[in-house]
C-alpha cells in the first residue's frame, strides 16, 4: 500500500510574525490603558470617600460643641438650685475671625503675630457638667469635652458653674507635611487648683479652613441679623441663635487639571453679613489641583446663653 508523501512543515513568515506582534501590542496597550483608567478612578473614589469622611467628622465635632453651648444642669448634685454664671461673665459661645494661636483662659484671645491658616476662625464653647455626687469629680456623661470625657459638675463654692470648655480652631500638623487640621482643646482640671489649658489635639486632618457666621435673634428695636465675629460686640454673643459653619476639606490625591474656578464660595445662600470680609465667604486654595470639597451646616443654639426671666 502506497503511503502519501510527507510534506515539509511550513513556518511563519516574517511579515506574519510582525503583524501578530503588532496586534498583541495593541491589545496589551488597550488593556494597560484600561487598567490605568480603572486605577485612577478607584483612587479618585477612595479620595472622595476620605474627604467625605473627614468632612462629616468635622461637622459632627462642631455640632456637638455648639449643641452643648450654655448648657446648665437643672438637677444639680452640689447645690439646691440651678446655678447660672454671672451676667458679666465670659459668653458661653464666642468666636474670633482670622485667629492664630488661640487661647481660651481667662477669655478667648488670639496671639499677635501667630500664623493663621487660610484666615480661619476660632470658636470657644463653654458649658456645665453634671455629677452624681456633690464632690466636683464624678460625672454622668451628660456633656463631654474634646477628648470625649464627661464633664463634672462644679461644686457650690465656685462662682461659675461652667466647667466644660471646647476650643475649635485650625492649625498645622507637627509632621513633615505640615497639613492643616481641625484642632480641639479643653482644659485639664486637678480639682484643687484653677483650670489650666490642655494641649490642643488634631481631630480631623485635611481641614483647610474654618469659617463661621452668626445669626442674632431679633429684639424689640432690631430685627434678626447675621454677622461675622469682627462685627459682634459683647452683648451680641448672648443673642446668637444660629451658627453658620463652612469647612473646606482636602484629600490626598491630585486631579489631572485644576478646577475651572479657583475660588470656592463658602456660604452661597447667605446674604452679605455685617462685617464681612472676602475671606469670610470665599476660599482660594493654595493647591488648585488637589481634590477637595466644601461642607456647610447651620446649627441652632439649643440652650439659653444668658440667664433670662423666661429661661431660668
TrEMBL record:
The chain crosses the membrane at residues 12-34. It holds the Pfam family PilW. Keywords: Membrane, Transmembrane, Transmembrane helix. Residues 135-157 have a biased composition (Basic and acidic residues). It comes from the Bacteria. Residues 130-157 are annotated as: Disordered. The keyword Transmembrane applies. InterPro entries: N_methyl_site, PilW. This is Pilus assembly protein PilW.
